[in-house]
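Me: I keep going back and forth on a fold encoding question. No explanation is needed for now; the record alone will do.

Assistant:
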Amino acid sequence: MSGATLPQLLLRHAERTPERSAMREKDRGIWQPCSWRRYWQEVREFALGLAARGFARGDKLSVIGENRPRLYVAQLAAMSLGGIAVPVYQDAIASELAYVLDHAETSVIVAEDQEQVDKILSLRERLPHLRLLAFDDPRGLRNYDDPLLSPFEAVAAAGREFGSAHPGYVEAAVAAGDADDLCLFSYTSGTTSRPKGVMLTHANLLRPAEAFAAVEGLRASEEHVAYLPMAWVGNSLISIALHLWLGFTINFPEKPETLRRDLRELGPTIALAPPRLWENALTDILVRAADASPLKRCTFDFFRGVAERAEARRAEGGGASIGTRLLLALGEFLVYAPLRDQLGLARARLVYTGGAPLGADTFRFFRAIGVNLKQVYGATELSGLCAIQPDGEVDPDTVGRMIPGAELKIDDDGEVLVRSGGVFQGYYKQPEVSAEALTDDGFLRTGDAGFLDRRGNLVIVDRARDVGKLADGTVLAPQYLENKLKFSPYIGEAVVFGDGRPFVAAIVAIDAATVGNWAERHNLAYTSFQDLCARPEVRELIRDEIAKCNAGLKEAIRIRRFLVLNKEFDADDDEITRTRKIRRRFVAEKYAAIIDAFYSGAEDVDVSAQITYEDGRKAVLRSTIAIGDLAAPAEPPREAAYA
């Protein structure tokens, strides 16, 4: 299969294993299978329908919505004709969507439902290249008569008619495809600027998929659930490239709200989730444990401690005593197995986290309860993957070793450089920026600061531009501290400051559900999220959580001052990306008054924060917020921080 394109792999599966399940979709509570033969047939018919509308090689097709089989069919149909798929984030606000769709020169959009159709129609004057807006779910769209609109079935029906007059049209187009043809534009998360269109070929996606499968021993019998944003390159790598490379089955949950239940029903064998989902899962577990009866709570706390101590010994190369093994066996029956089942990971062999660093404490927790969680490392410009942790060397502080075919260098400034078959073809319409991203010998400048540990595993410290120093010269990696803070179930997000300053300070956004639950249990009345954040009791709660974090840090990098923000960090407000990465420079500029107050010794600060609604309307949230202080803990740190 070396040198194949994605549609060529699809056609090959349809010919060799036509009746095997390629996909399953849950509809009205029943899992509906789709064979490889049917998958190819639907791709072929929709491709013919696109051809009948004038879609040609090099044209772009975007999909928007939750994961649905037809949105994958549409992407592969475009690729079959030599076109390029441009998935976009379904929760993006109007201005973000308009920029990406116009920049990519999208001519066809396939939307999931009425909500997404309305969003696109509101932007039509800003999308001069758009010729067709197809939709999957017709509910609510019966009375729409816009000539731009067409049901998915109508495009496929036109394709069948076109195919009768042009036999072998799609098959010939697929056969003419080359592995080096562009097939996907994956737009970056835009942590420092507008999103950039990363141009990827079939080979770019398939080479890391092939290496991934070989290193991890993945096979055609795997089960995977597609629920991550289609615009994230990690989803394209697994749910399209790896899926077509191996021929395993991908499953589509009924809706986002039923994901946990659907995972339990299916029992996937492989899974990928970004750090935020693991953090949310841990928060949910800790809240439920706190709300349980005293007996259940004590049982959970005891066996959690046993598991975490055993995991720490395993990480250090030590074994467990007979007594510990007996306790682990009992804990497996009482705590660990039920927890994995609740997470939908009862059958999971290989579970991954990627897209951003996961806090070491959160990582160790899931490893301790028997989830084979491993870090992967990559970038959109690397087609999503270049490194993975080998079995036996799983460590929360590393991202593992390079996959076969990938080369690594650390330059004199500590920046990680990678060269592999997954390296992108450049940024669309940005040749100068593309040239800056690559060295003369083809290595990608990742922008991450890192080093190799004694075993040859890559350690990512932080984004190179974010690593700084306190006024006394102490190295400060903000992401390290932020991940430790987010181990607390009460802290949803945190942004740490201190570069060039005398001490470390943090802006904290609480986890609304968890803190709200805590407030109810403590009979603390509040009228709104803003009111909850302003309560002195909540500030004391967060102070205690930060103090616990400080106890594990060396004194120089302990957090001295903090503020509980009166809103959540929101992608609509440009504070975080759609993949939940902090836009650090933007946050520093937006909340400059808070940072000045931290270091001027002020006890409170007037904050004016602009918020954006889904329809693009903006409002300003104004309030005076108290600043919290922490005394340096008397006890020595329990763990070594970075040097």
Remarks:
- The first strand starts at residue 21 and ends at 27.
- The longest helix spans residues 294-315.
- The chain is about 40% helix and 20% strand.
